[in-house]
Design brief:
The protein has 13 helices and 13 strands. The chain is an alpha/beta fold. Strands 3-2-1-4-5-6-11 form a 7-stranded parallel β-sheet, with helices on both faces. Strands 7-10-12 form a 3-stranded mixed β-sheet. Strand 1, helix 1 and strand 2 form a beta-alpha-beta unit. It starts with a strand and ends with a helix.
Length: 303
């Protein structure tokens, strides 16, 4: 399978923007999907304008007219209905490879994760839909394939917004279960590079859930790097992951969005060791881990 023409939707988002830049620097011919009412602009990038309602017939026609081989969906994973429309259009429009919005902190293929975090169920719905289409022949267009990339916490982004349980401004570290749990996380640029590598290896990556990480660390290791970067001794606040989940889950059930973020933060540390997962793909994709101290120094410097 050869991939040449790649389309991206969500190119101004947290993960979409770095994916856009990585694709612009790659050998692929890039197009960005932009809704008709969107105010987003993409200098020096080919833009395909699509209807606001993601009309499947019209979006599929746009894929055909632009000979799109691969579609990357970088909108929020919770937008299930929109993702399904885009996938249906990709299927009808002859797209060969689809990368859904499965990036993120937790493993949506894990049964316990879906129990703890029902919002992950939407990502599973999308993947199940892709699986239902993967063996369907489309005449001369062949079959459509997919790749899900599970990346762990967005490390450099999460370090600055509390996702990793560190309050950089307040020099406070909320340490779960002693702080020595190894977890997988990835800088945004690493995720973007992983997307490019997937497209460069279409045969090896088709119809697979792939786990990748740019950092494999503990909270205590991150804290040591933060204290070195800031020149301060931080306050350590011990927490129990069990107690935090028990406290926040009723709030989540009542619709508290901050509780959802807290559960994602906790579960993305205590249950995200990708090296133990079948499908850990760093080596297959030729990905090298990032340096923790350099990452922390850069992130703190940007604050």
């Amino acid at each position: 399978m050869a991939i040449q023409n790649v389309a991206l939707i969500g190119g101004t988002g947290t993960v979409g923007a770095p994916i856009l830049e990585a694709l612009k620097s790659s050998s692929f011919k890039l197009s960005v999907l932009n809704r008709a009412s969107s105010k987003s602009t993409y200098p020096d990038t080919h833009v395909i304008t699509i209807p606001d309602d993601l009309n499947v017939t019209r979006v599929a026609q746009a894929f055909k007219e632009n000979s799109i081989d691969a579609l990357i969906i970088a909108i929020a994973g919770s937008r299930v209905a929109e993702s399904k429309k885009l996938i249906e259009a990709a299927f009808k429009g002859g797209v060969k490879r689809l990368i859904p919005a499965d990036f993120g902190s937790c493993d949506s293929a894990d049964e316990k994760t879906n129990e703890i975090l029902p919002l992950m169920a939407g990502k599973k719905v999308i993947r199940d839909y892709l699986i239902s289409l993967q063996d369907v022949e489309r005449g001369t267009r062949g079959k459509m394939s997919w790749t899900s990339l599970i990346t762990g916490h967005f490390f450099d982004y999460g370090l600055t917004c509390g996702l990793l349980k560190f309050n950089v401004a307040g020099r406070k570290a909320y340490i779960l279960d002693g702080g020595d749990i190894k977890f997988s996380a990835s800088n945004l640029s690493f995720i973007a590079n992983a997307v490019v590598r997937v497209l460069e290896k279409p045969d090896e990556t088709q119809n697979r859930i792939l786990y990748v990480h740019g950092l494999y660390v503990t909270q205590n290791e991150v804290l040591a790097a933060l204290e070195k970067a800031t020149g301060n001794t931080w306050e350590k606040i011990p927490q129990s992951s069990e107690e935090e989940l028990a406290k926040e889950r009723p709030k989540m059930a009542a619709g508290d969005k901050e509780a959802v973020e807290e559960i994602v933060a906790v579960w993305g540390i205590v249950a995200s060791d990708w090296k133990q997962r079948k499908g850990f793909a760093n080596e297959m994709l030729g990905l090298r881990e990032d340096d923790l101290e350099e990452t922390v120094r850069r992130a703190v410097g940007k604050m």
